[in-house]
Amino acid sequence: MTGKMRPAMRRDELVEEAAGLGRRFATRAAKFDSEAGFPYEDFADLRDARFLGLCVPTEYGGLGASFADYCRVSNELGRHAPATALTFNMHCVTMLLVGQIAADLHWSAAELVTLQARRAHLYAGVVERGSLHAQPFSEGNAPGATAGIQTVAEPVDGGFLVTGRKIFASLSEAADLHNIVALSPGDDRVRFLGVPAGADGLRIEGDWDPVGMRATLSRNLVFDRVFVPQENEWLPPGGFDQAATRWPHFYLTLSFTYVGLMRGVLDATQEYVLRSGRQAHPIKQHGWAELQVIYEQARALQHAVVDEAGTDPAPDSLRRAWAAMVAVMEGAPQMASLALRVGGGRALLKPEPLERLFRDARCGATMLPWSVEVCLERLGRAGLVEGTEAPA
Ligand SMILES: Cc1cc2nc3c(=O)[nH]c(=O)nc-3n(C[C@H](O)[C@H](O)[C@H](O)COP(=O)(O)OP(=O)(O)OC[C@H]3O[C@@H](n4cnc5c(N)ncnc54)[C@H](O)[C@@H]3O)c2cc1C
Which protein residues touch ligand 1 with a CB less than 6 Å away? Predict the structure, then answer.
């Protein structure tokens, strides 16, 4: 802990600050999208605004945003610059996992001492040196967060040697730390390790030319016996499994960006219809009304679910969370598609924001571990087939 504690910023102050940042990011979004380049300028602004410490507790010098506060801030950033919000999410989720979420879990006295030390190390890097964290978990082997992990962390003197491969590693060239999940031989507890960028044996490979969310720079990472110091094990071993099974609402965080994107679709549609002078047409008004309904339903459900997030959720709460994921991750492309119809042909032309939002919106449903297919599969079994509630 440090002596630089400040009072936590209120949620409305944080959202207002995010709105100011977001409006600046929006002016750059088309350029990063067309280049599939990383928005370094946006992250410099986030750093200057102390937003890298958004979800760092105040006693460690951060802004002290809770999970529910973060949802609203992420909504606002996603409204203006979805790809930046999505990569910023990878950073913020690590802060929440090690902070608010870890605080809700069960630890032995020795584990608690370790956790406190790791928090202090991690948060000092963020608050004092502006370290940016990524979260490349995906390996393309299994849908679950704790299943199919083939990355190996071999314990050695002072740390681990990590060998493996991660796909879709957002912030691949921008992060200072790549926070991965890995297993040690003969030990089934998942380890959550921060691999330093630029470490010997770490390679970034593959092209990045996707349909949407192009400014996330989500290339592949290859680890060949990369040394990770012991103090970069952010949670005691098994802590990640505990978070994944006991605090599963943290998987919702990806959808915060997409509710923001949905709001961005509303903004862009309204602006476009007014600019083209077609606001008096009943058919345009009908489309505009439908867009608002899809957005408000998804946003209301997301916020209700986020406000009940915590340890060991009841089956009904978990089901609502899966339903919220589907409402958002399918609602976003549905809205973006409808918005293009309402806009008409010229809304399809670059650099109209609707064209970009349409492409960005399509990406959310594929994102694991709570992809739309996974959530629908679980919802389809819930209440009908035994053993559906396994959240990880
Ligand atoms: C823009 C973008 C950024 C990303 N950034 C990151 C990141 O920073 N970190 C990270 O870890 N990952 C990231 N991902 C990866 C993402 O979370 C998924 O892992 C990836 O999209 C899955 O790729 P896939 O569809 O080829 O996987 P596959 O594993 O082949 O899955 C195929 C499809 O089948 C479905 N499916 C598979 N198994 C089941 C099952 N048992 N039940 C129901 N449905 C199933 C999945 O939902 C998925 O839609 C990112 C993805 C995108 C698009």
Answer: 90, 135-138, 140, 143, 168-170, 213, 216, 218, 363, 366-368, 371, 373-374, 377
